[in-house]
């Protein structure tokens, strides 16, 4: 016999009140400034948080409110910070995307981000203004499961790993080169960092005083483990360019989480991770405790010219000093151009059987996006369906809530391309393109499919991996393929049984990736390639959904474009 309705209501109310009572507010005070750092032993100006790069890890519990008061002490630069993977339900103005959800924080100004972390998992934050992410403004967000909530795996301790790539040129130099004709490409990174530490391979060849191999800021990070224990490694990639392969020498890794969602566990020797992705893996400390082991980060999908990024795994109680380099050569990972090796890992990443959230069986709308490299007035750009994206001067959210229709192009970008006759393996005959800051307006509550199609670049026989990140949502990854996507054939192959939910996904060389999401988070949300230079060059779009449902905007996010000077 079931419980009386009144008893059920009381039980639900008591559980809800208990959850509210447990939720905490986590306050952070941050000052953003330039400081000289030796992240890879080379002295360089970096954008720091309270003097640190990476910035402090934000730790919270599911349901907590995070409050970050940010003071911009960069004397000549604006700032905005994106909380990558946090959906900002009810707080779209806190997404931290300059030009989309807010005006930037001006030098000397203070802005407070307030948002709820509604799901446990591993996330990150980083600059979302210009190309500041590659200058050091980034860090981790770790959200613990609510008390009493069981995760589908057990472990004895945990470590956090933030992977990055690092250049010696300033972001100003990089941006100026990308906008030049002919282009001055950013090139491959000088170093790969693990938790903000690396070692420039040619330190001895630099001018006196420029590189200090003994500087404590570039000493390898040491991860300590107890023999016989199981550890969760939370791994995030905040790289500006590089797709990476991560390995813990001699220790197999069981993948259990991706972008805050539980994965059907699978075992790997090494993990492919793309910019904007996060994973959790479990390792067993079951190797010889009397020696140390490498943690290794290697470039894949681009021909690498950057030395392996390294850190050290050390066993408590062993005879080896924690700072002693392992006796072996650091692992170099799989072949950089082994696309199928990476493709198979993508396909293997599906939802945990006990945590499947079934996708809607069909979409209300399908958008097919062709990623191409193009030119405008001799300058190289990236485009979607032959339109290269530009940000408006007035943020979309501000413009739409204030009826400023002239602030951006009201014509929507194209939703498809002539896919039947398009040869994705050929160089385009006409590479010229146009720009637009128009956006896609989605019916609130509708189900949207997006298929990302990769192609050949301006150079023959060249196609790159593009990691795409959606703000404000998670999406179901329905399928991957190599070759040209056919809307009449490939949707029948979609995984509707146990697709993983993610916020960032790779589109492989000459491949396609299909995803589905519900347009149920009122606001304006960016969707873009997470490679810093590619977004800067136009590889992105913006979705609007239910903006009329958004509450009154904080005054602090305004003050630029058509909302400046009292307009």
UniProtKB/TrEMBL annotation:
Which cofactors does the annotated protein need, by name? Cu cation
Q: PROSITE patterns this protein is in?
A: MULTICOPPER_OXIDASE1, MULTICOPPER_OXIDASE2
A GO CC term assigned to this protein in UniProt: extracellular region
Start and end of every Plastocyanin-like domain? 40-145, 159-317, 417-546
**Location in the cell:** Secreted
Q: Which InterPro entries match?
A: Cu-oxidase-like_N, Cu-oxidase_2nd, Cu-oxidase_C, Cu-oxidase_fam, Cu_oxidase_CS, Cu_oxidase_Cu_BS, Cupredoxin, CuRO_3_AAO
Q: Where is the signal peptide?
A: 1-23
Tell me the domain of life: Eukaryota
EC number(s) from the headed UniProt entry: 1.10.3.3
Give GO MF terms, alphabetically: copper ion binding; L-ascorbate oxidase activity
Region feature Disordered, mapped onto this chain = 315-334
Q: Which reaction does it catalyse?
A: 4 L-ascorbate + O2 = 4 monodehydro-L-ascorbate radical + 2 H2O
What assembly does the database describe for this protein?
A: Dimer.
Per the record, the similarity remark reads: Belongs to the multicopper oxidase family.
Annotated protein name in UniProt: L-ascorbate oxidase
Q: Which organism is it from?
A: Panicum miliaceum
């Amino acid at each position: 016999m079931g419980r009386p309705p009144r008893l059920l209501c009381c039980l639900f109310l008591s559980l809800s009140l208990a959850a509210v009572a447990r939720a905490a507010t986590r306050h952070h005070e941050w000052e953003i400034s330039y400081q000289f750092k030796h992240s890879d032993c080379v002295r360089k100006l970096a954008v720091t948080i309270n003097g640190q790069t990476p910035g402090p890890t934000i730790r919270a519990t599911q349901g907590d409110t995070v409050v970050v008061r940010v003071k911009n002490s960069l004397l000549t630069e604006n700032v905005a910070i994106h909380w990558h993977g946090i959906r900002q339900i009810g707080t779209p103005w806190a997404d931290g995307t300059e030009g989309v959800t807010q005006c930037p924080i001006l030098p000397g100004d203070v802005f407070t981000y307030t948002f709820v972390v509604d799901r446990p998992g591993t996330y990150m934050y980083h600059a979302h203004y210009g190309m500041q992410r590659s200058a050091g403004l980034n860090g981790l967000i770790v959200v613990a499961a609510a008390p009493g909530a069981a995760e589908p795996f057990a472990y004895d301790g945990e470590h956090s790993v933030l992977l990055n790539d690092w250049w010696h040129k300033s972001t100003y130099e990089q941006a100026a080169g990308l906008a030049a004709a002919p282009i001055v490409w950013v090139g491959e990174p000088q170093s790969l960092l693990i938790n903000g530490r690396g070692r420039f391979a040619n330190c001895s060849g630099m001018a006196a005083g420029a590189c200090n191999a003994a500087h404590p800021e570039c000493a390898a990070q040491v991860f300590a483990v107890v023999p016989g224990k199981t550890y969760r490694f939370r791994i995030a990639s905040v790289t500006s360019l590089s797709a990476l392969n991560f390995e813990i020498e001699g220790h197999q890794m069981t993948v259990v989480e991706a972008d805050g969602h539980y994965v059907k566990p699978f075992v790997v020797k090494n993990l492919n991770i793309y910019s904007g992705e996060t994973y959790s893996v479990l390792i067993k400390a079951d190797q010889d405790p009397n020696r140390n082991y490498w943690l290794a980060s290697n470039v894949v999908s681009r021909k690498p010219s950057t030395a392996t990024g390294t850190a050290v795994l050390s066993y408590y109680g062993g005879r080896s000093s924690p700072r002693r380099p392992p006796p072996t050569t650091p692992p170099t990972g799989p072949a950089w151009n082994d696309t199928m090796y990476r493709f198979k890992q993508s396909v293997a990443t599906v939802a945990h059987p006990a945590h499947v959230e079934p996708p809607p069986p069909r979409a209300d709308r399908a958008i097919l996006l062709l990623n191409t490299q193009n030119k405008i007035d001799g300058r190289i750009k990236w485009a979607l369906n032959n339109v290269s994206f530009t940000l408006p001067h007035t943020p979309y959210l501000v413009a739409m809530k204030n009826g400023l229709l002239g602030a951006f192009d009201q014509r929507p970008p194209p939703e498809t391309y002539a896919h039947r006759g398009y040869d994705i393996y050929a160089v385009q005959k006409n590479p010229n393109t146009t720009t637009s800051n128009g956006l896609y307006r989605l019916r609130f509550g509708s189900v949207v499919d997006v298929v990302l199609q990769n192609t050949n670049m301006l150079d023959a026989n060249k196609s790159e991996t593009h990691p795409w990140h959606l703000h404000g949502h998670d999406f179901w990854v329905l399928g991957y393929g190599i070759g040209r996507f056919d809307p009449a054939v490939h949707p029948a192959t979609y995984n509707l049984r146990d697709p993983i939910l993610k916020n960032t996904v790779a589109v492989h060389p000459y491949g396609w990736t299909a995803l589905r999401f519900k347009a149920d988070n009122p606001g304006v949300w960016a969707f873009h390639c997470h490679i810093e230079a590619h977004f800067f060059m136009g590889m992105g779009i913006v979705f609007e959904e239910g903006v009329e449902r958004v509450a009154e905007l904080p005054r602090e996010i305004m003050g630029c474009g058509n909302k400046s000077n009292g307009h």
